[in-house]
Amino acid sequence: MITIKDSVHDHIEVEGVAAALLDTPPVQRLRRIGQLGTVNLVYPSANHTRFEHSLGVYHIANQALSKLGIDGQNADRIRAAALLHDVGHGPYSHNTEDLIYRQTGKYHDEVHDILEREAMATVLDDHDIDPSAVADLIAGKGRLGQLISGELDVDRMDYLVRDAHHTGVPYGTIDHERFVRELRFIDGELVLAAGNIQTAESLLLARALMNPAVYNHPVARIGKAMLRQAAEQLLRSAATDAETLRRMDDHDLIAALRSCEQTVEYARRLDDRDLYKRAVWVEFEDVPEELPKMNHERIQELTRSVADTADIDEDDVIFDVPAGPSMPESTSRVVVNDEIRRLANSSTLVRALMTAQRDRWRFGVYTPQESIDSVGHATERVLGLDLDARVSDRVGRPATLDEFTGGRQT
Fold first, then answer.
1. Which of 27, 96, 190, 249 could form a disulfide with 146 if both were Cys (CB 3.0 to 4.6 A apart)?
2. Are 184 and 192 spatial neighbours (Cβ–Cβ below 8 Å)?
């Protein structure tokens, strides 16, 4: 047994297959993958890693196994999946995930190929565990896969608390021990036992508050968009290929960006926190209905049109189009009056949070400081935005697009 001191869970005891997996290269690589990507541009202490988080997920999974009465080979598979659930992440975690998917067809939870490599496969085989079965659990497949990837999974129970702890933001605090204690499998579904609507609500409330304060903070979004564009430029320059990029760590990617002529300026800006500024920051109701559904190629066409209209280099315009507002956790199941119900159908608070999610959605266009005005107006012309459409600046003051494009941002 190995005992590891953790900043969130105090002491984590690692044994069996998990202990054997700890020193494999794919797991150790997670020490060099930041949990929150560019969020440390906003919160300097947000430098925790996917390795720490993976240990936390393993720890909570162990607690859940005990409460649910799962043991034997099934338990060992879940322990392995909990520790390994993030080995498929590319550099800067989710920041490069969409780019990597477009190039390789793989998201971070599609890890069959990684687990079948020699180091991982040998350890799993030594413990009579099929690597494919572990990969399926990581992808959320099957009844037990809900524990690793689902609306009530142990992943969420760790990252919300851990991210709040390391950013110093108080919103992500949840009672994960109660969550674990109240989990049940009923008719193959992972649910919260009766009397736990408030428990489930607390998870959604924590996520809803962490989204604008941490995960979708405007500065973090700008950094993410710049990093994503730089990585795409790196691939276009043939300085690396998609499979190599997928297995890079954060340090590898920044070093590659610094070494490539086409991306060195992006690297400098990210290193110096000399970020682009918001030229446009528009609410969901004020963008064309089709915009959140557009594919990457169409968004790139619009980006080029805005750059041409503003008469600036295409690299100096970045569109940041989030997916449409959603809250997957609202489909969590809870037992109410002896029936399994979706949380959204049983909670007025959750329905309000879903509305708030829509209200907080923003479409962003980013550019260097000197081009804010020209890019803002070019975007208005290309997309047909209403210059009188109300948007919200970083301190929450309503402003017109005209006012905002000329405003100061940090």
1. 190
2. yes
For residue 5, what is the DSSP state? E
Query: 240-267 burial by CB neighbour count: b if 16+ within 10 A, else e?
Result: bebeebbbbbbebbbebbeebeebeebb
Query: 406 in helix, strand or coil?
Result: coil
Strand, coil or helix: what is 46? Answer: coil
C-alpha–C-alpha distance, residues 256 and 234, integer Å: 8
Name the residue with higher pLDDT: 86 or 333.
86
> What is the rounded (10 degree) CA torsion for 23, 26, 30, 32?
100
Distances (CA, A) of 18 to 24, 57, 77, 268, 369: 10, 12, 10, 39, 49
Spatial separation of the C-alpha atoms in residues 289 and 171, rounded to whole Å? 32
Question: Is the per-residue pLDDT at 29 higher than 70?
Answer: yes
Q: Of 103, 97, 87, nearest to 31 (Cα)?
A: 87
pLDDT tens digits, 66-116: 999 999 999 999 999 999 999 999 999 999 999 999 999 999 999 999 999
State phi, psi for 149 to the nearest 5 degrees: -145, 95
214 neighbors 163 (Cβ within 8 angstroms): yes
